[in-house]
Amino acid sequence: MRILLLGGYGVFGVRLARLLVADGHDVCIAGRSLDRAQACARDLDCRAMRLGRAGPLDAVADHQVVIDAAGPFHAYGADPYRLARAALAAGAHYLDLSDDAAFCLGISALDGEARRAGCCVLSGLSTVPALSSAAVRALTGDEVPRVIDVAILPGNRAPRGLSVMQSILSGAGRPMPVWRGQQWDRVPGWSEPADYALPGGLIRQGWQIAVPDQRLFPAHFGADTVRFRAGLELAVMRYGLAAFALLRRRVPVPVTRPMVRVVKLLADALAPFGSGRGGMSVTVITDHETRRWTLLAEAGDGPYIPAIAARALLRRPTLPAGAGPAVEAVTLAEAEAAMSDLRVRSDRSVTANDPLFPRVLGDSFALLPDQIRQTHLTLDRSRWTGRCEVQRGTGLWSRLLCALFRFPPASADVAVEVTKTVTPRGEIWQRRFGDRCFRSHLSATSGRLQERFGPFTFTIGLQVRHGALHYPVTAGRLGPVPLPRWMLPVSVAREHVSDGRFRFDVELLAPLTKRRMVRYRGWLCAKPPGDPSRPPS
Which of 113, 295, 341, 475 makes the best surface tag, with the fewest CB within 10 Å? Predict the structure, then answer.
C-alpha cells in the first residue's frame, strides 16, 4: 500500500515506518521539517515530503492510507479531525496512534462518512486501546470480566517524544474519571502507585494516568472496574512527577511547550541510567480466576510496541469500513505475529482468586447464605447501601471512645453506605452514616482476621453459627504493644439474613466499663450501578 505517515520521524513514527517498509509497503514520511523527513527516509529507503496538519493537504490524495503518528492529540485545536476528513475526501483510509481519550471517542462522528466512502477510520491504533483491548479479549473469551487492569512500563533508555511527555505532564495532578466498582470516581493523574510483575522476574511500578481504555472499556467489556497505569523506571523520575502532580492538585500550574522541553532535557540527562527493558501487563479478573498477559521488550525494542497494532492491521488484505476507536481492531494473535521479529517475549498465567473472608473461614464460608457471601467476594471494589438505626452510649468514657474512632451519632434512621476496596494486604472498609464516615483496614495473619482502626489492631475470631457470621474480638494491640484482655472492647456483632435481605447488628462495648459505646443495626443491598457509557465531564 502507498502510505503517508505524518510524524514519521518521531519516536514512534520512525519505528512504525521501519516496520511498514520491512513489510513491503510504499511509505512516505511526512512532517513540518523536510530535512528531518528526508534524513529519515534516506535511512529507510523510502519517500519523504513536507506536510503540516494545519497546512495544505492535497498530497493526501496520492496515498491509500494516511497515518497520524504525530500528536499531541489533545492539543489539535478546534478542528481536530481535519486530516481524517481530508483522507476520507480522497478515498483513503485514516489511522492514528492517539492516546487521548476524548480524541479517540470523538472520531466516531465520522462513522457515516467513512462507511459511505468504504474507508477505515481508526483512532488509538497503538498500545492503547488497540493492543490492550486485544489482550483483554484474548484473556476473557466470551466471559464478562469483573476487573481490567492495564499497565505500560517502559525502560528508562527508551527515547522520549515531546508529545507523549506533554500528554503525561498535562494530566499529572488533574482529576480524571475512573470506572471503579460500577461507579465513576475521580482520581488525580499520576496517583495510586502499584507494582507489576513482568516476564523474567522484573518488577516495575505504575501510576494512574488517563488513556482511552478507562472511558472505552467499561461499556465495551462490561467490567465493574477498569484501571490503567504507566511507569517510569527510575525512582527519581517517578517521585519527581508525583511531587509535580501533588503541586498541580493545589496550584493550577500550566504545562507549556517550553516547560516540556526543559523537562525533556532533564529526563534525557538521566538516559544513561536504568535499562532498555520495558514491558506491558494486562490483567483480567473473572468471578473465579485472575488471568494475566505480560510482555517484556528487550534491548531497546520497547518503542516498537506502539506501532505493532497498525502493522498488524495493515497486514490484512482488506480493512473494515467505518470510524471509531481502535478497540479490538486487531486480535492478540495478529499483534503477537506482528512483533515476532522483535526482541519481545510474552507470558500468560492463570491463578485462582483468593478473597479475604473465604480464605479466613475456609469450608465454613460455604455454610453462609448467599446474601452474606456476596458481600465478602469483593474482587476490587464493591458498594453497598441501605438504612440503619444508631444508638450511642451515654457515659463519658463511651463518648470519648466514640469520638476517637469517629463512630456515627445516634439516629433512629439514617442512610448508610459501605464501600469495600481490595488492597494488596487485604481490604479497606469505609462506612458512611449520613455525613459521618469512618474506615478500617482488614487483613489475614496466621489464618486470623485482623481489623485495624488507626494505631489499634484487633484480632477477630470469625464464627459461622446458625447461618449467621459473628465477629467476636479475641485479642488486640496498640501499635506493636499487646493489649490485656481487660483493655479490649467487646464485640457483639453479627451478619444475618432476614426476609431475604442482608442485615447487620453491631454492638461494641467499651474497654474497662464494658458499657455500650455504639450499636448500629440495619440492612444493606448492592448499590445500583452507574452508566458506564457516561463518564463525568
Answer: 341
39 near 62, Cβ under 8 Å? no
384 Cα distance to chain centroid: 22
Asked if 214 and 178 count as a contact pair (C-beta separation under 8 A), the reply is yes
Amino acid at the residue 441:
H
- What is the spatial distance between Cα 417 and Cα 422, in angstroms, rounded to a whole number? 17
What cell numbers appear for 474 in the block? 479475641
Q: Kindly give, in sequence order, each residue whose CB lies less than 8 Å from that of residue 76, ignoring residues fewer than 6 positions away.
A: 53, 103
Phi, psi (deg, nearest 5) at residue 198: -115, 165
Q: For residues 106 and 96, give the distance between their C-alpha atoms in angstroms, rounded to a whole number.
A: 13
For the CA atoms of 351, 353, 356, 362, the dihedral, rounded to the nearest 10 degrees, stands at: -90
Backbone angles phi, psi at 342, to 5 degrees: -105, 165
Yes or no: say if 4 and 30 are a contact pair by the CB < 8 Å rule. Answer: yes
Q: What is the pLDDT of residues 207-266, one digit of tens each?
A: 999 999 999 999 999 999 999 999 999 999 999 999 999 999 999 999 999 999 999 999
- The amino acid sitting at 372 is I
Q: Pull the grid cell for residue 232.
A: 517510569
Please check whether residue 31 is in contact with residue 51, taking contact to mean a CB–CB distance below 8 angstroms.
yes
Nearest-CA neighbor of 226 among 536, 532, 534, 537?
Answer: 532
Whether 435 and 454 have beta carbons less than 8 Å apart is answered as no
DSSP letter at 276 equals S
Average pLDDT over residues 365-374: 97
Q: Find the radius of gyration of the CA atoms of the chain.
A: 27
Pairing of strands 65-68, 93-96: parallel
Please give the distance of CA 399 from its chain centroid, rounded to a whole number: 42
Q: Is the peptide bond before 72 cis (omega within 30 degrees of 0)?
A: yes
* Residue 510 neighbours by CB under 8 Å, 6+ apart: 393, 395, 397, 398, 401, 489, 516, 517
- Which helix H or strand E contains 147, and what residues bound it? strand 147-153
Distances (CA, A) of 441 to 32, 369, 426, 427: 55, 24, 7, 6
Whole-prediction pTM value? 0.93
How crowded is residue 200: how many other Cβ atoms within 10 Å of its Cβ? 12
Residues 144-164: tens digit of each pLDDT:
999 999 999 999 988 887 888
Cβ count near 267 (within 10 Å) = 17
